[in-house]
Design a protein that fits this description.
heterodimer; A: alpha+beta; Ubiquitin-like (UB roll); 45% helix; B: 598 residues; alpha/beta; seven-stranded mixed sheet; 18% strand; globular
Chain lengths: 345, 598
């Protein structure tokens, strides 16, 4: 980045904002409008958009409220990345622009589009409700206000970062699974579920977890890390997702979904052979009946094309598998020790 | 995406209020019974009111209207914390001390019975929030942590790092979702429909469709937050804190109270006016002038940086006026120095502040002092209410910053605003729930809705000479900041009043360029500007009339407090487009008037 900052060291310059426009009452399809304005260094994208709205084109529509990075209203895609307009410096974006001097601004993805840069947020709220993203207190409501719960600083630390979430939906916008399945639970809801599950004051841990391991739940995530990368509050969302998975296996075993069984089959193979036994992987993940029904035609095609994986007995254990096993054992013992330490505290 | 029917512990005694029937009611509400409670505003006060009303009577039909998604509300920006005499940190802290600090802080303009309610409810409300899942920061003994705050005799400010308001708002929103409160998100309130001395309900615009809709309601609670955004660029507030509730109530004939009292926060960031929490000073930050001096020792030798806000703001402004500030193109400023706290404390206790300084000023407080100057922050005034949030119009309530009970008097103490919205949000919610079962309002006449729709359309008419709302808005902030800011005097305020008057005239020429119905933010911002202009007049008039200095209101031509003439609330009634001023005595109690020194 240092090279390009030298490139844009000037104090003021013309900047073009290429903004996604769409008014459902007039336009049949979206288009881009270019606004070129002279800006000074140190200005944020939101302030530039405000300037355009106030002085150039008042029909430009976007959400903005606190302008201080805490309300989450102004999330939009700036140069192909979802972020808050109010905390994004124009000069930083100039460095990332594909076309020199042009900053591209689009609405968030994966949410229904309303107008220009405004998208519908109701689906996110709906999912928060579906997955009970609230603390359902262990204390009956009638007793509220009389006594505080005792919570250790260590417990607070576990969900401290997760409570930074401002529901800006940047992670929703960048999520690759949501692109394919609108019903997918979505990263933000997983993060919040994790936070609720980690809270000792909450009384519906198991129930919430049972919802999360269903179809379109926590096992659908493909670990692409886009959510974590885009999070405007730098929350380690993937840690939360892994946390839920570990918790799910610990409390519910691998019976729930193919995702969990798939993970377990991988683990088995690596331990035994150091490589995958692909031929039996579908059977172990989804069962024999499912495999015969869904994969047999493909298997036949693969055989014809001579693309079949080697039969299981021929998959030989990798060289050095002994030391790998040893290492895995060591790792496992570390993890158990950590767990013991944690619960001991 | 269809939300699954929300689970609730509501008894099945009230079949009229299942999720499905409520959905129906939402869709066809014009043809059905009025709402029991319509809450305008989805911040801390509104959500607490909704939750408490739901708890009081689970069968009620409650609608929360908000011009934004409730989780975006400005409550989220409150960083510091909420005061409560839990005595977790200082074992000798008592509710009485909290009461005294608040009354003294208010410069004795607060009603003492109201303050007593506020402070004695405080520990309960903090524990209640804990019980429903607010992640408070903790002490070593696992109880809720507390820290010192300006104007408080003991460390009693409960906090969650520097995101206290944010976490409280999230918790309340989550609990409202759990309880199945009905949200009408992105609805902009336009008008209160009044039938004699009783309200019929509310007229609001659906922002997503542009349709003007009637919300017949037995009771209406205004919880729309403050009006300090009228100072525009010299305000720490969100763009939407335009006093919509106050303006609607005012125009409907409900009196406003103590509008001249606007609190300036000592430490706003130089460029944007955004806030650096008082917690930064609570943790031990220094205020330093260009001569490298910790100048607070000359103004509040005992409390130093932790004096009450009005005093610290005046001190900063004086330093700047007397030429001991730093100079920059964005204006003069002073330094808030946190460097001696060390990286660890800054990172763990003030992470948001650090982020903000880096985003908006390009300064990392670990390495450099933060450039600050006073910024308009909080409106002590608001809709005149009694201790239950009731106004003079039956069925209309107000709570939080939008209302004025008054607990903050002439100056609010840090950490008391979150407390105010929580305590009075709850009290108001309960009061409205109890009243709602007793009344049946008359229907809102269709003509009123049509009239409103027509009025909105008229802004879009092309006109020969037109004004842009953006310019007007900036001018308003500029004139208020210069003439009705921290230091006020008759000649300046008169200039301010004249400016507001001419701005109101220019507003007649404002044109809305976006003529569409869907999500017309152009129209919205014009409507918000109208609300600000109406309220700005009351602020300036009140400042001119009150010939004394009390709390946040400092007249250089009347530098002392005048209890004989001015120990009373100012009341503003809408009278043919202009405010008519009357007065109301302050409720006294245990504490006699004293000089206020720190």
């Amino acid at each position: 980045m240092s090279d390009s900052t030298i490139q844009h060291h000037e104090e003021s310059r013309d900047v073009t904002f290429r903004v996604h426009r769409f008014n459902p009452q007039v336009d049949s399809k979206p288009y881009f409008d270019d606004y070129t304005i002279k800006l000074e260094k140190g200005i944020t994208v939101l302030r530039a958009l405000n300037y355009i709205k106030e002085h150039v084109d008042s029909t430009l529509t976007f959400r903005a409220f606190c302008q201080a990075g805490i309300c989450g209203s102004c999330a939009m895609r700036i140069n192909n990345m979802s972020k808050l307009a109010c905390t994004t410096q124009v000069w930083d974006e100039l460095d990332k622009a594909r076309e020199p001097g042009v900053i591209k601004i689009e609405p968030l993805r994966n949410l229904p589009h309303i107008k220009d840069l405004v998208v519908e947020m109701d689906p996110v709220v709906g999912k928060m409700k579906k997955y009970s993203n609230w603390v359902d207190s262990r204390m009956p409501e009638e007793q509220w206000g009389k006594k505080e719960f005792l919570v250790s600083e260590e417990e607070f630390q576990i969900y401290d970062k997760a409570t930074d979430c401002i529901l800006c939906a940047s992670c929703v916008s960048e999520c690759t699974i949501l692109r394919a399945h609108k019903e997918y639970v979505s990263p933000v809801v997983l993060l919040r579920s994790y936070r609720m599950n980690a809270d000792s004051r909450d009384g519906i841990h198991d129930q919430r977890l049972a919802g999360l391991v269903q179809d379109h739940g926590v096992w659908d995530c493909t670990h692409c890390y886009r959510c974590q990368e885009t999070c405007v509050k730098n929350i380690p969302i993937m840690d939360a997702i892994h946390g839920i998975r570990e918790d799910a296996i610990e409390r519910r075993g691998t019976k729930d979904t193919s995702g969990a069984r798939h993970a377990e089959a991988f683990m088995d193979d690596i331990e035994k052979k150091g490589r995958l036994v692909e031929a039996t992987l579908p059977i172990r993940t989804n069962g024999l009946a499912w495999t015969l029904k869904n994969l047999l035609p493909m298997a036949v095609k693969m055989i014809i094309k001579r693309r079949t994986p080697p039969p299981p007995p021929l998959v030989k254990a990798s060289k050095g598998i002994q030391s790998l096993r040893k290492e895995m054992k060591e790792m496992a013992s570390h993890v158990t020790k950590d767990h013991e330490k944690k619960s001991g505290e | 995406m269809k939300a699954r029917a929300s689970r609730s512990r509501r008894p099945a005694l009230f079949p009229t209020s299942t999720s499905a029937t409520r959905q129906l009611r939402k869709d066809f509400r014009l043809f059905m019974k009025p709402f029991d409670i319509v809450i305008v505003g989805g911040g801390g006060a509104g959500l607490y009111a909704a939750m408490e009303a739901m708890k009081t009577n689970p069968g009620l039909n409650i609608a929360v209207l908000s011009k934004i998604y409730p989780n975006r509300s400005h409550t989220s920006a409150a960083q510091g914390g909420a005061n409560a005499a839990l005595a977790n940190k200082a074992k000798d802290d008592t509710v009485e001390m909290h009461i005294f600090d608040t009354i003294k802080g208010s410069d004795y303009l607060a009603d003492q019975d109201a303050v007593e309610v506020l402070c004695s409810e405080a520990p309960k409300i903090i524990r209640e929030l804990d019980n429903m899942g607010t992640p408070w920061s903790r002490m070593d003994d696992k109880t809720i942590a507390q820290r010192p705050f300006g104007g408080a005799g003991r460390p009693r400010c409960c906090y969650c790092a520097d995101k206290t308001g944010h976490t409280i708002l999230q918790t309340l929103y989550e609990q409202c979702l759990r309880k199945g409160v009905f949200f009408f998100n992105e609805y902009f309130a336009l008008e209160l429909s009044v039938d004699g001395s009783r309200s019929r309900g509310l007229i609001a615009m659906n922002i997503k469709t542009g349709k003007v809709e009637a919300f017949p309601a037995k009771t209406v609670i205004f919880a729309t937050g403050g009006y300090a955004k009228m100072y525009w660029n010299r305000s720490s507030n969100a763009a939407g804190n335009t006093g919509d509730g106050q303006a609607i109530a005012y125009r409907a004939g409900i009196p406003l109270k103590d509008m001249e009292f606007v609190q300036f926060h000592p430490t706003g960031l130089r460029k944007s006016g955004l806030l650096v929490t008082e917690g930064a000073r609570g943790e031990g930050g220094y205020l330093v002038n260009a001569e490298g001096e910790r100048f607070m020792k000359r103004y509040a030798p005992e409390k130093m940086e932790l004096g009450p806000r009005d005093l610290v703001s005046r001190s900063l402004e004086t330093e700047i006026l007397e030429g001991r500030g730093f100079d920059s193109p964005a204006g003069k400023y002073l330094h808030l120095d946190l460097r001696h706290l060390g990286a660890d404390i800054i990172k763990s206790r003030l992470p948001q502040i650090r982020e903000m300084c880096m985003y908006f000023e390009g300064v990392d407080p670990i390495d450099e002092p933060v450039p600050v100057r006073p910024t308009a922050h909080y409106s002590m005034g608001g809709i005149d209410t009694d201790n239950f949030g009731r106004t003079i119009i039956e069925g209309v309530y107000a709570a939080g910053e939008c209302g004025c009970v008054s607990v903050h008097g002439a100056n609010r103490l840090g950490g008391n605003s979150l407390l105010d919205i929580l305590v009075f949000g709850r009290i108001t919610g309960r009061a409205a729930a109890e009243e709602a079962s007793q009344f049946n309002p008359s229907a809102i006449p269709a003509s009123e809705v049509d009239e409103k729709e027509h009025e909105l359309r008229s802004f879009m008419q092309p006109r020969g000479h037109y004004e842009r709302y953006g310019t007007l808005r900036e001018d308003l902030g500029h004139t208020l900041g210069a003439n009705v800011g921290i230091f006020r005097e008759a000649s300046k305020i008169k200039q301010g009043i004249a400016d507001v008057e001419s701005l109101r005239e220019r507003f007649g020429h404002v044109r809305v360029f976006d003529t569409g119905d869907v999500y017309n933010t152009n129209l919205l911002q014009v409507l918000e500007l109208k609300n600000m202009l109406d309220l700005a007049e009351t602020v300036a008039e009140g400042a001119l009339v009150r010939e004394e200095s009390r709390g946040s209101h400092t007249r250089t031509d009347f530098p002392t407090r005048d209890d004989e003439k001015w120990h009373k609330h100012t009341i503003y009634t809408y009278d043919g487009g202009r405010p008519k001023l009357t007065y109301k005595p302050v409720t006294m109690g245990r504490y006699e008037l004293q000089e206020r020194t720190y």
